[in-house]
Write a structure and sequence with these properties.
Rossmann fold, mainly alpha, 4-stranded mixed sheet, single chain
């Protein structure tokens, strides 16, 4: 009987939300619009780049044109090197006027000493394109000056190398990719948990406002209703996330990210598998999301049962937002010091674990037993929060017109 009631609420919540127009817009329209914008941008860029990306380099010094041309070609330009002579700028200006040339770059003695140069272009260039040109010029000038000494110009311009000898090899990670996976994943967990957990509160408020909850509770226990709502919104969230994952997979398979890489200073993405998380990390991500959602959705369900209006709910949910905001503020320190006592302690606190333990796991330096312990603590917290929220929900779901005080909440817990 219990599971029949839970299934009925689950099914109703899922169908009602999936059939809404906003679900279709957010789930299907979002990735479609994003892909369409990318495709249109690439198409228009390719159509307009035939002349704009053809640039001539006129070098009075005869030492800068080769490295500048090499850097610009790597960034996507088609480069022509012109011999410096009287009347060369005027001849190139005539080509620009006929749109046969996108622009030309004049390098002289000032370029060699201060990096100052002049660009003549058909249209105004974007800041990213200008930054790429300026970087190419300054690097070429520095390479020339360093090349006249005993220094290895190429190695210095690449930033040099730093050899690190780590005493405890289990407490370090290899490169900067882990940082972005850890930070991006933590922020994504914060967003999806906040959005979907608060949807449970919204569903509770809607039913209280319409008085439908009185009819529903005449045929089932209050905690059956709460559990059905939590699982129904969870099913909606997993459907939406699955559609988004499939959309991203199709975009990658279509080569859209690769078509954007290598343009005007953007990094090359020859092998996306090298920067994307592996199957194990994806599985942990889903696990952290599910348990984080179950914990916070129980709290939000109780919050919705205590409130009667949207204004009350907005004020009352501030503590919930702070519970999620604190780990977000601690993400960077935890990533920078994943093995410190503070990072370990904070990541094992169940309400912080979905975000902070993920941030530590993504760096690849967390012992397996700590990850397992965090999951055990989160599972226990799910049951504890469900017990607590169920009693508040049972007493507060029928209450309208007045937000309970702390003594009243304590009385509800004892009486329920």
């Amino acid at each position: 009987m219990m599971w029949r009631n839970v299934w009925a609420v689950w099914r109703r919540e899922y169908i009602q939300r999936v059939h809404s127009k906003w679900f279709a817009v957010a789930t299907v329209g979002g990735p479609f619009i994003m892909a369409l914008l990318i495709v249109v941008t690439v198409f228009l860029t390719d159509r307009s780049e035939d002349s704009r990306t053809t640039i001539a380099v006129v070098d009075e010094t005869n030492v800068l044109s080769e490295p500048v041309a090499r850097a610009l070609e790597q960034a996507g330009w088609v480069v022509r090197t012109e011999v410096w002579e009287e009347g060369a700028p005027e001849a190139l200006m005539a080509e620009i006027e006929t749109r046969a040339l996108g622009g030309f770059l004049v390098l002289d003695g000032m370029t060699l000493s201060t990096g100052e140069a002049r660009l003549y272009s058909v249209t105004g260039e974007s800041p990213l394109r200008l930054l790429t040109i300026r970087s190419a010029i300054s690097e070429a000038a520095l390479e020339y000056h360093l090349g006249r000494s005993d220094a290895d110009a190429a190695a210095l311009l690449q930033g040099g190398t730093l050899s690190v000898d780590v005493i405890d090899e289990s407490s370090t990670y290899e490169n900067g990719t882990e940082f972005w996976i850890a930070y991006g994943g933590a922020f994504l967990l914060y967003m999806v948990i906040l959005i979907y957990a608060s949807a449970v509160m919204r569903a509770t408020l809607d039913e209280k406002a319409s008085r439908v909850v009185e009819l529903i509770l005449s045929s089932m226990e209050p905690w059956h209703l709460m559990l059905g709502k939590i699982l129904g919104v969870w099913a909606v969230s997993m459907t939406q996330i699955l559609v988004w994952i499939c959309s991203v997979t199709l975009l990658v398979a279509a080569g859209i990210p690769l078509s954007l890489s290598g343009r005007y200073g953007l990094p090359e993405l020859e092998n996306l598998s090298e920067v994307l998380p592996g199957p194990g990390l994806w599985a942990l991500f889903v696990g952290f999301f599910v348990l984080g959602y179950l914990m916070y959705s129980g709290l939000y369900a109780a919050l919705g049962a205590m409130c009667s209006t949207d204004q009350e709910a907005q004020q009352a949910q501030l503590p919930m937002i702070m519970l999620l905001l604190v780990p977000i503020l601690m993400v960077v320190p935890v990533i920078q010091g994943p093995t410190t006592a503070a990072s370990t302690g904070l990541s094992l606190f169940p309400l912080f674990s979905p975000i902070l333990m993920w941030a530590r796991v993504a760096t690849g330096v967390v012992p397996v037993w700590q990850v397992g312990l965090s999951f055990i603590l989160m599972v226990l917290s799910v049951f504890g929060i469900a017990w607590l929220a169920g009693r508040i929900y049972k007493a507060g779901i029928l209450m309208t017109g007045k937000r309970p005080t702390l003594p009243e909440l304590w009385r509800w817990l004892r009486e329920a």
